[in-house]
Design a protein that fits this description.
With 272 residues, the chain is an alpha+beta fold. The chain has 7 helices and 9 strands, in the order βββββββββααααααα. The strands form 3 sheets. A 4-stranded antiparallel sheet has the order 4-3-8-9, with no helix packed on it. A 3-stranded antiparallel sheet has the order 1-2-5, with no helix packed on it. A hairpin with a 4-residue loop joins strand 6 and strand 7.
């Protein structure tokens, strides 16, 4: 790697000082010590001192782009949300917090840390997905020696054999409707694919279609501005995966979900 993560050049220089941290935020002073105006992207990394689970040595958890005139100083605050210290636990199948001491690192890049301070974080006391001693090659970043047994410890289940039942899931992309059991879903895939290929042939790829084409089913709700719930997304998936009774069941769920979600949206607007 030629440049460390977060690296950037500037026509001026910056000084970092007066770091104060808590579990919720980090506050420090940034000063433009050069002779010209400029902007600095200050970055916040979190580093667990004695992690019980495998995680990167430094994790980017926030940043702030700050413009300062020559000689100007400014107090900068970078918040830490509820995701700052969590990890995904394959044993509990949810995000957990590994309690202990964490270093809060502030710098201009991952390799250029200017300030550091420590905080103590309360964990969720969840059972560990696996002991680090059980995955020595992975824990030491010796990835060429990671065995199947180590990978299964990380995965939390046996390694899949690569076969596929032919049923699309919420994390599958819309472009995978090529495999759908529903003829209507495959027709939608064919139309979208044709539109995308035509735009590419013209030398002007349609970015909107490209985005939707590669979007997972679970993301439909987020892109619909609150009009589509996760319940409706699951019903859409039922339609895609079936025909006959399954199609009718999915369509019924979609209509019912739409009515229910419309009521939720109206209630939210009345509160505002």
């Amino acid at each position: 790697m030629l440049f460390p993560f977060g690296y950037g050049l500037s026509y001026t220089t910056f000084a970092y000082s007066d770091l104060k941290v808590s579990n919720r935020e980090a506050t420090f002073t940034l000063t433009n010590t050069g002779k010209v105006d400029g902007a600095e992207v200050a970055q916040l990394y979190v580093s667990a001192k004695a992690p019980k689970v495998y995680r990167p040595a430094k994790e980017l958890k926030g940043f702030a782009k700050v413009f300062l005139k020559a000689g100007q100083s400014k107090t900068v605050t970078i918040p830490l949300d509820d995701k700052a210290f969590r990890y995904f636990n394959t044993k509990t199948d949810r995000f957990e917090i590994d309690g202990g001491t964490y270093d809060i690192l502030i710098g201009a890049s991952v390799a250029d840390i200017k300030l550091s301070a420590s905080v103590t974080v309360t964990g969720t006391d969840a059972p560990l997905p696996c002991e680090l001693a059980e995955i020595p090659s992975y824990a030491n970043a010796d990835i060429q020696k990671v065995s199947d047994s180590e990978f299964e410890k990380l995965l939390g289940e046996p390694i899949p054999d690569g076969s596929w039942a032919g049923t699309l899931q919420m994390n599958d992309a819309i472009c995978q409707m090529y495999y759908a059991k529903s003829l209507k879903a495959r027709l939608v895939w064919k139309i979208m694919t044709g539109m995308l290929n035509k735009s590419i042939e013209k030398g002007k790829p349609d970015l909107n279609i490209t985005f939707i084409y590669n979007m997972p089913f679970r993301a439909i709700g987020k892109m619909a501005g609150g009009m589509v719930s996760q319940e409706m997304c699951k019903s859409i998936l039922t339609i895609v995966n079936g025909h006959g009774i399954a199609f009718c069941k999915g369509l019924g769920g979609l209509i019912g979900g739409f009515i229910k979600q419309s009521g939720v949206s109206k209630k939210a607007k009345s509160i505002k």
